[in-house]
Design a protein that fits this description.
Blueprint lengths: L6 H9 L2 E8 L2 E12 L2 E7 L3 H8 L2 E8 L2 E12 L7 H6 L1 H14 L1 H9 L13 E15 L2 E6 L27 H7 L2 E10 L2 E12 L2 E7 H5 L8 E9 L9 E12 L8 H11 L6 E15 L2 E6 L2
Antiparallel strand pairs: 1-2, 1-4, 2-3, 3-6, 4-5, 5-6, 6-7, 8-9, 8-11, 9-10, 10-13, 11-12, 12-13, 13-14
């Protein structure tokens, strides 16, 4: 493997607007979208100094993410390293990498200029955690990546141990309150009941974030994707920690960002290989809007919802 990503990977990373970034927590993956920039063969982003991600990376620097651009996406895993002017533990790292950090900062500012314009419009309302003094600059060194499209995997970089769940049985969940019913009404209404999403799966080789289509069905959520994409997570049919991130992004204004992440337990199925329940599983795939041909399905039973609406955010424990 060469140190440099193939150009077709880099084109996606240069064109993408948001990166769905996952950090490991005791509840499973914590997955949310962040603006970013690609510079010096690294992915760069900022996060609040006291955020879940910042705290998680201080204990364990492993990171996974997903960037979309048009009909293609790059999923990756790697290591995060913070550059924080208030943390002496990062100063030597920053000094050694100063030319790269300076160039990346300029690239980050230029690429995300429209969001900074939005901050200027809303300057009087921005909480300290969203302003430069409250944030840390993070570089992510990728260790492996995969180029994906609507049909599945197009190319791999680095070492992947792909596997698919074994044949089993699927049974739809029983009725109950909608999975997103506990969200604030404005957030719930904005998200709808189906559409594109990002799914973080904590497989045996670490978390992998995949593009998916989602649908709500009573207390359960469903995510569908090409089976080749799911294979990258290396999951078996046993339940595993997952996080499903659904959002409605604004082109330039952070205060208009709306979204939610459902953290819980997920179980994977291949509808056309099931011994029983294949038709029911295929119907769930169709509800998400995904193509049932060659699709994989993940049933998610949420235990916690994390939501955001502009500067406001919160969490709700359910189940």
């Amino acid at each position: 493997m060469t140190d440099r990503l193939p150009q077709e990977f880099e084109r996606v990373l240069e064109r993408g607007t948001l990166c769905y970034v996952a950090a490991g927590t005791r509840r499973g993956p914590h997955l949310t979208p962040l603006v970013f920039a690609w510079s010096d063969r690294r992915l760069w982003l900022t996060t609040s100094r006291g955020s879940v991600k910042a705290r998680a990376w201080r204990a364990d620097p492993r990171v996974a993410g997903l960037v979309r651009a048009g009909d293609r996406a790059v999923t990756f895993t790697g290591r995060a390293a913070a550059h924080d002017v208030l943390d002496p533990a990062t100063w030597i790292r920053t000094a050694v990498r100063l030319p790269a950090v300076t160039a990346a900062s300029a690239r980050f500012t230029g690429k995300n200029a429209r969001f900074f314009a939005g901050y200027a419009v809303d300057a009087r309302r921005i909480p300290l955690a969203w302003t430069p003094p409250g944030r840390v600059f993070v570089e992510i060194r990728m260790e492996r990546a995969a180029l994906l499209d609507d049909a599945g995997v197009r190319a791999l970089w680095g070492e992947w141990d792909a596997s698919l769940p074994t044949t089993g049985a699927f049974r739809a969940g029983r009725g109950g309150s909608d999975a997103f019913a506990a969200l604030p009404p404005a957030v719930r209404e904005a998200l709808g009941g189906a559409g594109p999403a990002a799914l973080g799966i904590a497989g045996p080789g670490g978390t992998v974030v995949l593009p998916a289509w989602w649908a709500e069905d009573g207390p359960d959520l469903y995510a569908a994707m090409p089976r080749g994409s799911l294979a990258l997570a290396g999951v078996s049919q046993a339940p595993t920690p997952v996080a499903l991130a659904v959002d409605r992004a604004s082109w330039w204004r952070a205060r208009e960002m709306i979204g939610a992440t459902a953290q819980g337990v997920g179980q994977a199925f291949l509808p056309d290989r099931l011994r029983t329940g294949g038709r029911s599983a295929e119907e769930k795939v169709r509800r998400t809007g995904a193509d049932p041909e060659g699709a994989a399905l993940v049933r998610i039973r949420p235990g916690r919802l994390v939501w955001w609406r502009g500067w406001s955010s919160g969490s709700v424990t359910i189940g």
